[in-house]
């Protein structure tokens, strides 16, 4: 008897929402100040790319038989997310000139906020 199929959580929707909001914010700010817009985009991408990497690894496995693989993938994803975030900030602050540091961190925090709210909505709607 085959086991029950567990649907993969739609975590990709969070990434798509983050990218849509980031794009709209940056396009709106581009009219106001080009440096702030590019800095916000860079900070937002520093948050979105590592989170998408983590979600790809962590939610690759499903089912009770894959519990060990899921745990291993989650640990690897979390380490990769941390390393990508550190590397992303290093590249942003070393390579982009001129840059608005406050806008970089504002973009990062805005994307983290969307990720937290999106994760909360996924958890509450799936119950």
From TrEMBL:
This is F0F1 ATP synthase subunit I. The keyword Acyltransferase does not apply. It is a multi-pass membrane protein. One of its GO terms (cellular component) is plasma membrane. The chain crosses the membrane at residues 12-32, 38-59, 79-96, 102-123. It is found in: Cell membrane. InterPro entries: ATP_synth_I. Keywords: Cell membrane, Membrane, Transmembrane, Transmembrane helix. Signal peptide: none annotated.
């Amino acid at each position: 008897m085959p086991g029950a199929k567990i649907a993969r959580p739609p975590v990709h929707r969070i990434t798509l929402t983050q990218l849509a909001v980031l794009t709209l914010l940056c396009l709106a700010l581009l009219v106001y100040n080009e440096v702030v817009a590019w800095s916000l985009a860079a900070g937002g991408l520093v948050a979105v790319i590592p989170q998408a990497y983590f979600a790809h690894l962590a939610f690759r496995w499903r089912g009770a038989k894959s519990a060990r693989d899921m745990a291993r993938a989650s640990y690897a994803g979390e380490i990769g997310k941390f390393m990508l975030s550190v590397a992303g900030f290093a590249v942003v602050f070393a390579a982009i000139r001129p840059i608005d540091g406050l806008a970089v961190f504002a973009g990062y925090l805005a994307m983290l906020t969307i990720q937290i709210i999106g994760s909360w909505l996924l958890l509450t709607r799936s119950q």
